[in-house]
Amino acid sequence: MSQLKEEIFRVIDEALPVPEAAPRPELAEYARILREYPERGGKMLRGQLVVLTARAYGDDSASLPVAAALELFQNWVLIHDDIEDDSEERRGQPALHRIYPPALALNAGDALHATMWRLLVEAGGRRKIMAEFAQLVETTASGQHLDLSWVLEGRFDLTPADYFEMVERKAGYYTGVAPLRLGALAAGKMPHTSFATAGLELGVAFQIIDDVLNLEGVREVYGKEIAGDLWEGKRTLILIDYLSQAPAAERARAEEILRQPREQKSVEDVAWLHQRILASGAVARARQLAEEKAAAALAELEEALSTLPDRQAAAETLALLHKLVDRQK
Fold first, then answer.
1. Contacts of 48 (CB under 8 A, 6+ apart)
2. Which of 22, 106, 189, 327 sits a CA distance of 20 to 30 A from 49?
3. CATH of the domain at 64
4. Burial of 12: CB neighbours in 10 Å, binned 0-12, 13-18, 19+
């Protein structure tokens, strides 16, 4: 674990309850549930981006609590997301609601959400930082609503433009925009305008690559169930592309499979759909588009970061942004 990652985790660790200090067994279990996802590690790239961006602006003294709060945001959102999608795995282990009753997992997500705000308040509660976090939560929730509603309503009339709008809200903002803006705000500076434009494009590229890895990645490296998006019926760019070009009979069978709840899908049907999508070229086309978006966004962000006072920290920030999208199987 890098030193910066260790520092962010230390702030998180100190903010969470300790099982050994709990006054009763139920609350010891509560503490263990809250710690489950944070202690699984994760890359903490978003949190590190907050600190490095603040450092690039010349002042990272207030950035660690903000970085830790952003990582807690990631953790409680993932808990809720896993419950809503009925996911199997997270970070290479069973999803929280697969280990504990879903009601307890949901409650743990709520508790981490509250801890996120407490960290920000205890760090001084700067108005602009608090407003950015509110924007972050609201934007992500609206994207999640689109994602969930399309599955619940059985929508198959979606276009790439629909997907991009959903992903910009659900994942693009909190991955590519918020860490950079929060780093600038933590340093007491106004964020560069490219953080909102190029950062959003980079966040979209990140999610497209995640969708690609969900279908062609290696489970031990990816950290989640391969083809989980098909089990959950996710309307990804890849699926939209595949359905738009599939022969009528094949598309009808694919839609029939995707309409079924997870527990009613068969392994054979999902395997058939998985192979048909891979054979269609939709995955390769999505990866190429993601790489093009990432390259353009990184070039714009490199130019923006080059204007900041701490050149070394700016270079480290850019390197970490590259790491966001330079993901392999």
1. 2, 4, 5, 8, 67, 320
2. 106
3. 1.10.600.10
4. buried
Q: How many CB atoms lie within 10 A of CB 98?
A: 16
Spatial contact of 48 and 67, defined as CB atoms under 8 Å apart: yes
Place of tokens 């759909």: 273
Domain that holds residue 215: 3-325
Secondary structure percentages of the chain, helix, strand, coil, to 5: 75, 0, 20
Token pair belonging to 175:
């991955």
Backbone angles phi, psi at 167, to 5 degrees: -70, -35
Residue-wise pLDDT for 21-67, tens only, equals: 999 999 999 999 999 999 998 889 999 999 999 999 999 999 999 99
Report the 10 Å Cβ neighbour count for 162. 16
Distance CA 315, CA 295 (A): 16
CB atoms within 10 A of CB 284: 13
| pTM passes above 0.85 | yes
Instruction: Give the SS3 label for residue 279.
Output: helix
Domains in the chain, number: 1
Give the integer Cα–Cα distance in Å for 301 and 303. 5
The secondary structure element, H or E, covering residue 90 is strand 89-90
What token pair was written down for 169? 């809200």
